[in-house]
């Protein structure tokens, strides 16, 4: 075939003029005689991709969805041949990744898929049942949407699994970024302020200003007594024309200059005293804040012995053995020696059961609750977790400053996100170049 006989597309993909024309006809709205005549060709193979194929019906369905999204956004659609080319290329790239997922054994459980569907429904203010009904009313298949979401989740896992291992962020990179103005701004605390302004004109009398101030201070007291900001402000008589609202999450430097001095003085949930500016009287509540400041956590140094039930050791027998070992420790035997002999926690047994310093949320809830209620130097009674029966001894407790660790973790996450898209684009080009693709 000569070059003039075909149209070259991005990524060395091409469609013959005949296929391009057929797809254009198939994508036309409403039943036409040409579309009906082409029905049998609808499921023809458009492209062979490694061990799989892309069908004309897949391309048609995706094109319909793309056109629908463009129309919903009120955007201008690109020329149809460009849209066909880009959509086909996207389908081929997705197909490559789905096949990789199959080879890697990537699976999405029903529970994970249900959670994803639930989040989508919740974003639309619906339950999953309501979401399913709405889709059916719109002529769309809930199961088809579910399958598409599963496909997207598989692709996302394949991408993350391959791209994350390509990204390396050194401690020096983190230090260098923290030394920049951009880095310093990143680790600044963020505030979510709710604000109400009662405007005051230049000709307002002192008596009227004082009246408005007294009224505003009464509102502040109600908020401080536990009423929500929204409930208090919606109860205000119309003669007091307050304006304002939620300013959203903002860094200190991004707040209006009026609030930059107030914000650092407020704790989460605290409301400032009424203050006045040339624009009027202000009521300011710190709805929430995150990051910045000193951060400390309570840590516990602990060791344990784990006894797992098995085919030859019933659950009751495992509990009784754990209780017996506790009695032996209390009678004077060394906890570490018993852990090395009896504990079935491979990771800690050789260390005498020592788990080191643990932070909140690091252990399973049953273990953590027992650890929190056990005094230093005391061996706990047996406690059951998903792993088996434990006895534990709290060795020390401390309060650890993790401010610097959190700052570095925040920067590492930011730098990772910035590198991720670059590495993803490069990886997608690589797998596309390495794949066998034959456009029919």
From TrEMBL:
Cell compartments where the protein resides: Periplasm
Keyword Lyase listed: no
Tagged with keyword Membrane: no
Enzyme kind, highest EC tier: isomerase
Reactions catalysed, as given in the entry: [protein]-peptidylproline (omega=180) = [protein]-peptidylproline (omega=0)
Native organism: Congregibacter litoralis KT71
Signal peptide: 1-37
Pfam families xref list: Rotamase, Rotamase_3, SurA_N
E.C. number: 5.2.1.8
Keywords: Chaperone, Isomerase, Periplasm, Repeat, Rotamase, Signal
Ranges of residues in domain PpiC: 188-288, 297-396
Record remark: domains: The PPIase activity resides only in the second parvulin domain. The N-terminal region and the C-terminal tail are necessary and sufficient for the chaperone activity of SurA. The PPIase activity is dispensable for SurA to function as a chaperone. The N-terminal region and the C-terminal tail are also required for porin recognition.
Biological role stated in the UniProt entry: Chaperone involved in the correct folding and assembly of outer membrane proteins. Recognizes specific patterns of aromatic residues and the orientation of their side chains, which are found more frequently in integral outer membrane proteins. May act in both early periplasmic and late outer membrane-associated steps of protein maturation.
Protein name (Swiss-Prot/TrEMBL): Chaperone SurA
Matching InterPro entries: OMP_Chaperone_SurA, PPIase_dom_sf, PPIase_PpiC, PPIase_PpiC_CS, PPIase_SurA, SurA_N, Trigger_fact/SurA_dom_sf
Entry superkingdom: Bacteria
GO biological process: Gram-negative-bacterium-type cell outer membrane assembly; protein folding; protein stabilization
GO MF: peptide binding; peptidyl-prolyl cis-trans isomerase activity; unfolded protein binding
Gene Ontology CC: outer membrane-bounded periplasmic space
Organism placement in taxonomy: Bacteria, Pseudomonadati, Pseudomonadota, Gammaproteobacteria, Cellvibrionales
């Amino acid at each position: 075939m000569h070059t003039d006989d075909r149209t070259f597309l991005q990524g060395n993909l091409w469609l013959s003029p005949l296929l391009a024309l057929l797809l254009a006809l198939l994508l036309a709205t409403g039943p036409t005689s040409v579309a009906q005549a082409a029905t049998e060709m609808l499921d023809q193979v458009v492209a062979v991709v490694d061990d799989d194929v892309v069908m004309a019906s897949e391309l048609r369905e995706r094109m319909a969805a793309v056109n629908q999204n463009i129309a919903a956004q009120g955007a201008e659609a690109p020329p149809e041949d460009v849209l066909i080319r880009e959509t086909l290329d996207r389908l081929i790239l997705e197909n490559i990744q789905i096949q990789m997922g199959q080879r890697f054994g990537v699976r999405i459980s029903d529970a994970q898929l249900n959670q994803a569907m639930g989040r989508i429904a919740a974003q639309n203010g619906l339950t999953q049942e309501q979401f399913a009904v709405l889709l059916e009313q719109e002529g769309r298949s809930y199961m088809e949407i579910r399958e598409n979401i599963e496909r997207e989740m598989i692709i996302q896992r394949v991408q993350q699994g391959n791209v994350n291992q390509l990204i390396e962020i050194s401690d020096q990179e983190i230090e260098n970024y923290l030394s920049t103005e951009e880095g310093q701004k990143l680790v600044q605390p963020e505030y979510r302020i709710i604000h109400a302004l009662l405007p005051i004109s230049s000709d307002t009398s002192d008596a009227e200003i004082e009246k408005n101030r007294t009224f505003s201070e009464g509102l502040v007291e109600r908020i401080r007594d536990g009423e929500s900001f929204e409930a208090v402000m919606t109860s205000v008589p119309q003669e007091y024309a307050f304006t304002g609202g939620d300013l959203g999450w903002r860094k200190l430097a991004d707040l209006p200059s009026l609030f930059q001095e107030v914000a650092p003085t407020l704790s989460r949930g605290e409301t400032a005293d009424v203050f006045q500016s040339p624009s009027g009287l202000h009521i300011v509540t710190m709805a929430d804040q995150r990051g910045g400041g000193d951060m400390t956590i309570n840590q516990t140094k602990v060791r344990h012995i784990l006894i797992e039930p098995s085919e030859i050791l019933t659950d009751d027998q495992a509990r009784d053995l754990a209780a017996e070992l506790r009695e032996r420790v209390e009678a004077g035997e060394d906890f570490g020696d018993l852990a090395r002999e009896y504990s079935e926690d491979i990771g800690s047994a050789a260390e005498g059961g020592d788990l080191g310093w643990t932070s909140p949320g690091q252990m399973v809830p049953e273990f953590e609750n027992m650890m929190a209620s056990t005094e230093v130097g005391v061996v706990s009674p047996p406690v059951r977790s998903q792993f088996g029966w434990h006895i534990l001894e709290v060795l020390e407790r401390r309060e650890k400053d993790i401010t610097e660790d959190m700052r570095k973790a925040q920067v590492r996450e930011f730098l990772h996100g910035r590198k991720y898209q670059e590495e993803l684009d490069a990886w997608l080009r690589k797998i596309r170049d390495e794949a066998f693709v034959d456009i029919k």
